[in-house]
Structure formats: C-alpha cells, structure tokens
Write a structure and sequence with these properties.
Layout: E1 4-11, H1 16-29, E2 33-40, E3 48-56, E4 69-74, H2 77-82, E5 87-96, H3 113-119, E6 123-127, H4 129-136, H5 142-151, H6 158-168, H7 174-184
Parallel strand pairs: 1-4, 4-5, 5-6
Antiparallel strand pairs: 1-3, 2-3
Helix pairs in contact: 1-6, 4-5, 4-7, 5-7
C-alpha cells in the first residue's frame, strides 16, 4: 500500500486531534505503519488547528509536504480553504458545512465553498455534519460524522474504525459516536 496522507484542518474545539487519533488508530488496527503530528495555533481561542496522519506499509515522517495530501478533512469551511496548498491535484476534500466567523470579522467565504473547491479540481464530499449531529442528539460529534464520510474514501475496514472509536472516545459517548460514524458513512 502506498503511503496515504490525510490533513485535518479546523478551529480549536472541533475535535480535530481526537478525529486524527481515531484515524491513526484505525490504520494501526489494520496492520499499517502510522505517523501523526498536530499543530495547535491558539486552539483554545478558536484559532487554527491542523493535524497530519500518514499511514501505509512504510512511513518515514509524520509531516505532509505541500502538494502531497490525498485527503483533507475540513471541519470548518474557511480553514479548509486555508490549507489547499497541501493537497495534491485531484485530492478528496471532506468538507463540513460549518462556517465560523473569523475573530476579526469579515466574510472570507466564497458563496459556495464546495463549488469553489471543485472548480480548482478537487473532489468534494460536502457533509452537513452540524445537522446530522443535532439529529443524533449531540452537537459535539460533528467530527465523528466527518470520519464516517472519510471512511468511505479510505481502504480501512469498518471494524477497525469502530474499534478505534471504542478505544478513544469516553465510554459514556461510545454509542452516540458510533451512530455519528455510521451516519457519516451515508454521505
């Protein structure tokens, strides 16, 4: 298996670190070598957070070079746009339909982020994770909904994903996270 590079981008408090750890654990459960790193820029104040996960039969570095990522999970639309230079041509973007106004104000969003990404040659899976999470009954599980959507575009067994979720989320939230993951797989 060729090395797969997945970039997670969003803002503090959106569960990026947990989501990337779940992916890393699912890859590990699948018998693959995994490297992971994260960057918290003012995360506690809603600042930018990215996490990088690389997995395959042989992985030498956790860092994703610009133009190398095959997948981007954007938990917030503007943050997804901010890190496009990390994507290789034709990469898959799992785009959460969530907009968080920048701290300085203004609206840096295109009228349709998914369409803007597609025009740049990326494959987009736009996920209304906020609505899905509310329907399930917990607005804090958007990240797990997005993992479900991502899982459709990675060659990792569903059982490995579910085992990773069980290992990493608090036991009291396991069932709701599994429901969120399964809901995300429908997108």
């Amino acid at each position: 298996m060729k090395t797969t590079s997945v970039l997670f981008a969003g803002v503090g408090g959106q569960g990026i670190v947990l989501a990337s750890r779940i992916l890393a654990q699912a890859a590990f459960e699948s018998g693959l070598m995994v490297k992971e790193t994260e960057l918290h820029g003012m995360a506690q104040r809603g600042g930018s957070v990215i996490s990088q996960v690389r997995f395959g039969f042989e992985v030498h570095s956790p860092l994703i070079l610009r133009g190398e990522a095959s997948r981007l999970v954007a938990t917030e639309e503007l943050e997804g746009l901010r890190y496009l230079d990390y994507l290789r041509p034709g990469a898959r973007v799992i785009l959460n339909r969530r907009r968080i106004a920048p701290a300085g104000g203004g609206d840096g969003y295109p009228s349709d982020t998914a369409e803007a990404l597609e025009k740049r040659g990326f494959k987009v899976t736009a996920v209304p994770a906020p609505e899905a999470a509310r329907e399930i009954g917990n607005p804090r599980i958007e990240n797990t909904v997005l993992l479900g959507a991502l899982s459709r575009h990675l060659d990792l067994p569903v059982a490995a994903w579910e085992k990773a979720i069980a290992a990493l989320v608090p036991s009291r939230t396991l069932e709701v996270n599994l429901r969120a993951f399964r809901a995300g797989r429908r997108f």
